[in-house]
Amino acid sequence: MERIERAADVVRVDVAGRVEPSSAWALLAAEHDHLVWSDRSTAPDDAVSFIGLPRSAADVLPWSGTGPGALEALCSTLRERLPAVRSRRLGWWGWIGYELGAAAAGVETAPSDEPAAAFLLTLRGVEFDHAAGRATVLALAADRPWAEATAARLSGLRPSPVLEAPRAAAAWRLEREDYLDRIAACLDAIRRGDAYQLCLTDRVTVRADRPYVDGDVLRRLRATDRSEHAGVLRFGDRSLVSASPERFLRVELDGRASTRPIKGTRPRGSDAEEDRRLAEELRTDEKERAENLMIVDLMRNDLSRVSEVGSVEVERLFEVERLASVHHLVSTVASRLTGDAISAIAALFPAGSMTGAPKRSAMQHLARLEGGPRGAYSGAWGRIAGDGSLDLAVVIRSALLHGDTAVVGAGGGITALSRPEAEWDEVRLKAAPMLRALGAATD
Asked: For the Chorismate-utilising enzyme C-terminal domain, which residue ranges apply (predicted)?
């Protein structure tokens, strides 16, 4: 990789007129094999979307390392190669697969044919300020000619149509009776005292009658399932498409860290009265509150390993968050870090909401029960910015695309109070929006 001076200056060139991120993506994605689209058009704060590009092939980081030290080695590599740039968007964008976290905990998992992790050092890109209706091209000072040329190309760009979903067929790894059997095994483990919560997951493989177009999958998905952590990460012939509602880890410039675990789900109601009833049912449900509290305690413990003594606090507990297709029960845990943002990744990964508790014991049981790898699903994806901030989401409500094939994960937390049939229904409810975007039936 070309050496980049520390604290490199960033040039900003405004695009004349209004341009939609989807139109810019269609233009740039037709020319590049590696790029990212972070869609924050509905975010409650920092509503700025971003399309980022690496400067060269040297800024593409596939990670195939495995074993107990692989996650720490990845974090070290990301830290060493990240230049300091005055931007919240420019920097690393990528995903970390679940198996790296399991290996770091000494848990053996099934082999996966997906990349263990994949990152792009995006030091060129376009910001879309949704409140101001303005697009701005960003680049290092040395790349001003590229920034000016790109701004000119985007000016006046017409909206691009979204393709209809292909016809597709979906096959679950664990069908209903198999999944119910695994729930029974989880309940046995809980009764024995081996764990007190287990996040049991399943995977569905979708095959279509034509190759998927990643940007169109996201556009179909966000029409019904919008999220502040939505986006596409294209890494060669694979693309991660996500509408994740769950924050894994955010770190601000002042060292404040926060995580927002989700535990507890209900469908949206068919009318306002039913919707309020379901939200209140979720907020007061004994099983859902206990499940959420267990993971809050786990995340407090994980954060305490890299935070100032006495700084870890639960800022919000048992909040009902309304999304297009579901209600979620969400809590927020925050602290002040003692080290940099990247140092916190290894301490928290994978998210406790995707493992259960105690974390290592839960992962060991799940590795035996789930019948295969999770891959990118239940890992983390997002940005590690050159200004020292970080924002990663849990990889849920997501699909990994490869040609005409997509894989989608879904799961739920099993506790002593779980009702197996309800857990089965919840898994299908969570997967349904993505399956519809992929063109697969959800019955």
From this structure: 176-430
